[in-house]
Design brief:
alpha/beta, TIM Barrel, 12-stranded mixed sheet, 32% helix, globular, binds S-adenosylmethionine, molybdenum cofactor biosynthesis, nucleotide-binding, MoaA
Amino acid sequence: MLSSNPNYLRISVTDYCNLNCIYCKSRDYLHLSREEVLSFEEIAEFVRLTTEWGIEKVRITGGEPLIKKDILILLEMLREISALKNLCLTTNGVNLKEFAPSLKKIGIDSVNVSLDTLNPGKFISITGKNELQNVLDGITTARDLGILVKINVVMLKDINDAEIIDFLRFARDNSLILRFIEYMPVGKNFNEEWFLSNILVKNKIEDYIGLLEPYSIFNSESSGPAKYYKNSGLIVGFISARSEPFCSNCNRIRLTIDGKLHSCLFSLSEFNIRNALREGDEQEVRRLFFQTCESKKYVCDGLEDRFIPVSMSRIGG
Ligand code: SAM
């Protein structure tokens, strides 16, 4: 049972991606027509409304948001919503170098970069593209501009789990916040054999650098499912949907590019706000928003026996 209404909205602005990660397989595209897709004005209006109903934080995700050249227009529109406290973005980093100065200018609060390996060959085998150097350049450019950058790593057994310590060194050397995200049963290519518990990842880190102390400044209500720890200057977060289910603390809802609200990645019900939004029917948008929040209270208590057959990029990872 959820303690309070969600305050964090994740918006998928495209289901397309310029990478094709083995565990995400984002090429499971929806092929939507222009008509079916929410316009930036519609997204901004929805965000404006939801800030009146409790939303404080918005994350732009996808698919890959930085393949959309006009994404800055949407970010500017959202930044102008004064009630929105936190505006952030999740990217694979391939185009981050080019976008970082504009993101800084707009005043983005943070950028999460997904990076699963520091090895150029392995990067190609995981993502299908030779883009590691571009991602690394994007990370350092954003960081040097003063943008808060968090690195999100999905650890997969026998694929990249030999790199846990390399990632620690990378984060420490580059003053970055590192987060380990547990592989979740999402997408047609889900392979249980790749699952690696964050308990093992944390143990391995502690064997190497010593005890990780809970980091209370980061473990605020708005941090949602991530649990943060600190060890001499290094901040490490764990998002452990399977080994430590966080459904009762989850503060997120998701909006897809075609206007469907999801209370949870694993919920089969969706609430389509597109028509109501287009017709300017604020009462109906409000009703659907609160119905989504209400359904969140009864979603689940962990991911045991749960599997969602569509890719993360469709729902907004
Ligand atoms: N393109 C952007 C990016 O790469 O960050 C945003 C979309 S991507 C779907 C968002 C995140 O979802 C990435 O960090 C990716 O690693 C993660 N992801 C995809 N499938 C996942 C799964 N089955 N379990 C856990 N994380 C997953």
